[in-house]
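Objective 1.3, modelling of assemblies. Example input:
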Amino acid sequence: MGKALIIGAGGVSSVVVQKCCQHPDVFEEICIASRTIEKCDAIKNKLVGSKTKISTAQVDADNTDEVINLINNFGPEVVINVALPYQDLTIMDACLATGVHYVDTANYEPPDTAKFEYKWQWAYKEKFEEAGLTAILGSGFDPGVTSIFTAYAQKHYFDEIHTIDIVDVNAGDHGYPFATNFNPEINIREVTANGRYFENGDWVETEPLSVKKVYNLPEIGPTDIYLMYHEELESLSKNIKGVKRIRFWMSFSERYLTHLKVLENVGMTSIEPIIYEGKEIIPLQFLKELLPDPASLGPRTKGKTNIGCVIQGTKDGKPQTYYVYNVSDHEKCYAEVGSQAVSYTTGVPAMIGAMLLMKGIWKKPGVYNVEEFDPDPFMEALNENGLPWQENFSPTLLDEV
Ligand code: NDP
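Predicted structure (tokens):
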């Protein structure tokens, strides 16, 4: 059917590439391009014999002209951006300049401020409309599948949605005292930020990780979850009409939180530059160099993830509760693609978003969050591509302990 350019060669990219290669009828040719070409080649080398033709390229995606040249040389229909959120705008500019569709998994964040927001990417809406191009934002798991779960609930099970609680639990153990499951810099910036949730049209701020619950989740058991801000809250508060409250919860072990507190207390998570032996360094970027590479956690991680949405509202005048979730097993993901479940659960939806776009099923000119498309083909594709979901309507199955 066509060509896709995949930018980034980290943990998520490796899964996207392998999943694209499972659909050679759609992804006839892909190019993996990133800052370090050796990492692109390493992914390509895992796929010797693939029907999808694979090439690699070096690119600095902070530089729009370099991305434009690469797109012009390769000629893709779509760019799948699984580099870092810092590159979103330069890559979107390059897509506009060359007439290519765009898919990503994380919204733009300026490198010097730990603040992610959709406003920068939503500002491209008219430009993409005028160019007849589609940009699909946030096609990972969260954001991504959690937003599609919500759109699916809205379409099939609710007249009105009142509350949404997104619950992201990773009960996997990699055996390291401290490591992050995706890019450490992005992860720590997110976790150390203030909590925030949407209620009755306003945003309520909380101290970082200060609100805790214990949820007893299927296939996981009782788990500590903490209220955090997460980017899909911004788009869902706009796109799910009439919603009164949306919160996001993530699990952290005591061990993770203790390490994080110490690192924070000594200044290692700061993004303020400091001078060390005459050279300017950013403590968090230095810390990233010390921590295990998330892509290396695959063979060590055991246990499961459970990510889903608890949605409450009304149907036919009666109260309705709906819980929809996916459970992924780190070891099973590793056996299939050589990556742990956090990369897997992000990479599969990124491939599906691009596949629906290439098939013309999710194609409409403009810039859209995933919940603005028909959720049904995506939900079907999740079941077919390694992320089966389960649902139940009984709130007792999700006892708060
Ligand atoms: P990694 O750090 O493992 O990989 C990022 C890749 O991007 C690296 O290969 C890196 O190159 C490359 N890169 C960074 N800067 C540039 C640049 N200027 N030009 C070209 N390439 C560049 O991250 P992950 O794979 O863990 O995460 C990828 C993305 O997925 C992130 O944006 C993350 O926020 C998002 N994500 C989304 C989730 C979701 O559910 N929606 C969940 C998890 C992650 P190099 O190898 O040289 O450093």
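The first strand starts at residue 2 and ends at 7.
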